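Hi Q.,

Before the meeting this afternoon, I wanted you to have the manganese (II) ion prediction in hand. No need to reply - just skim if you have a minute. The sequence and ligand are here:
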Amino acid sequence: MEKIVVVMPAWNEEENISRMIEELVDKEFPKIPAEMHLLVVDNYSKDKTAQVVQDAAKTRKNVHIIEQGDKSGLGWAYVRGFRYAVDKLGADAVMEMDADFQHPPRFVRPMVEAYLNGADYVIGSRYIPGGSVPKEWDFSRKFVSFAGNLFIRLVLLKPSIHDLTTGFRLTRVKGVLDKISLEDLMELDRFAYKVDLLYQSIKNAKKVVEVPLEFAPRIAEKSKFNAKEMISTFKLAIIIGIKDKQRFIKFGIVGFIGFIVNYIGIEVFRRTTFVQELALASGGLKNIAGLNILTTPSSWSAALGAEMAIISNFSLNNIWTFKEKRLTKVSEIIPSFLKFNLTSVGAVIIQFIVIGFSVLVFGDTSLVRLASLVFAIIFLIIPYNYSMYNLFIWKTWKLPWKVGKH
Ligand code: GDD
Ligand code: MN
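Predicted structure with the ligand bound:
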């Protein structure tokens, strides 16, 4: 049978905890087709929380308590609890649950069932059909909770998940929890750690399921959540969101630098005699091809500028964007650079033609070269690069004649 440990941080919850043990452990657990355990993580409560649990554990084999040591805060309580559940109790899955009945015990069973049906990560969600927040909450409280969730959903770009701050979740140990370096989670001394833990968990989990949760009002004792906790939660979501998109952002910055290099390259080459000689030498081809784009120095400047951008993009992406995979050996850099050139050669040709054609029609000025470069990049080079990347680098598209082959 699967062993599931409900980890329940409790801090000054004397009034709630004994009733919770009766409702959850005595009434709810026997209905669930798994080996269920409750692990309370106390934080040296000033009241009798610890004593109540210790007494209950005497007569129940599946009730456990640990004391939170030197580091306090909700995140650390869970880290301690998860470690104990996995290392000492041998849990297959762990749950996060509050001690104050805001997560009514009857919602544990559907969460476990989702797990037994193959979910790796189960989220008790207030914002899906069937889920709710307390009707006792006033409008502003409901609004803050809903808008806050929407905001985090947007910054993390996780539209498929509806409740990102819920405190009621189930996590498979193998492949999900055991891949997370728990002690390195951010903001462990605050409620905000929840966002980091969620982010890491959904990265590892193959199947994520949301199960409705009717979040109940708190009856006894006081909530420990406050504005400070809320602000740190938003801050952490933004940090994680940026970190997550870092590579994409770097890629964009490198592309922009490439554009500057490209334009400066065009203007510098345009002022050299080298491109004039290239244009002159192509004069012989003129009669054959009948194209005077070939004899236009600006076309050659554009092609050389494009090549400089290719070199700049390749180098910056290698040393910065993809620095974890940085190539250092010349024997690796050269073939990879040649391959990059092969996929980028279209950009050189596009610039040669578009800029050459534009200066012939609109006049050979810096402004025409800049405008035609911007036009070429937006309407031709970006779509071209995107297609080449999909075809040859990421291999997400298949050429028609390759469809069906592996
Ligand atoms: N051990 C320990 N140490 N337990 C703590 C600590 C702590 O520092 N702080 C809070 N707890 C326990 C409480 O005793 C309770 O069982 C649970 O953690 C949740 O604390 P509440 O004070 O009831 O928080 P809340 O109801 O306002 O916040 C709920 O909503 C948040 C936002 O949606 C919780 O479900 C949070 O987990 C959730 O992030
Ligand atoms: Mn609560």
